[in-house]
Amino acid sequence: MKISIILGTRPEIIKMSPIIRECKNSKINCFVLHTGQHYSYNLDNLFFEELELPKPKYNLDIGSGTHAEQTGKMMIGIEKILKKERPDIILVEGDTNTVLAGALAAYKLYIKVGHIEAGLRSYDRRMPEEINRILTDHCSDILFAPTEKAKQILINEGIEEKKISKDTKFLCTGKFKVGNSEYKCSKVHGLQNIVGGLLHSCNIFFYNLGMRLGAKKILYYAHLLGLGRRTGIDLPYEKKGFLPSEKWKKKTFNRSWYPGDTLNLSIGQGYLLSTPIQVAKLMNFFATRGYLIQPYIVEKIDKIRIPFKKKEKIESISRRSIEIINKGLREVVKNKDGTAHILEKLNLDIAGKTGTAQARAGFHGWFAGFFPYQNPKYIIVVFTEYSGSSFEACKVAYKFLNKLKENNLL
Question: Is 73 part of any domain?
Fold first, then answer.
């Protein structure tokens, strides 16, 4: 990996010094690009000498000027160097014109951006530094938030936690060990990314992902997407399902939350409870590419139209992330190794997910999906109680949809 550290002011030199030093000591391929935003000896060279840092490989000597002049000149100079060096990632720190110029230049060249001290806000848009920091945060690939509050600010602004990408892979050997306990998968799947994890319904992939995210984050997104709360459908006695928590388990059983609880949660097992209508609403979120829509039975009575049902755009989950998951959902049906491949025979362009829920007396089967994949019109959820596996749910879905096709109802 090749790293470019872009800096230009005294605070950046000081705060980046441990990273520069570590790259040197670890023999990491790294170079420093100095914009020259601070250029006097006392604000520049003095700190390289005192901190015993190697001299920058490049210095643009931009000097003073208006914000636009500085930023524009920096982008021109930085772009030329990045095209020449082609680093894998650039690192910037803080909220200066150098930071913004470096981030924008790299972003436009499809070079990854890492922003140190991300998520800090003054909430005063009259400050140029506030604009620099916000724009840099929103075009960065890796965000180093210094506090939990800064991290939450980024999430609230729609920058989701980048714990996983389409390239993240985990090795499935058929089993996953935590302490003395062993958790199994249906078979050995080998190296799996998110698409493979979905199409094979690979427990090991989701165990690894669940441990990386942690229970609190899984529960945060589960609640955000409608689990653990009523959908608001116009039917009586709707159940709200259940999302377990560390606090609940301690209060109910006087027992701690263990890693095994997180593993169960990561594959929808354990104490988690959901209803078919919740799962339908969740699947519709992916079908609509980002909207939670309140389901309803009655649209109007005679000429009286029932008030508009709630439709909520979930801004904190990006369209890009949704499309990655949707690709996996489509492969579940399309790919010959997919757990719902039987439904591909219907030629309805279905995307979906199977699930087998363990209960005390046996196993329940699930299938949830939407179709057509590119322009969805329908959501389907099948739950087969004590049927033994998800394949039984897929067979029910197949027979139901095939009958609708035969009667020209699709």
Answer: yes
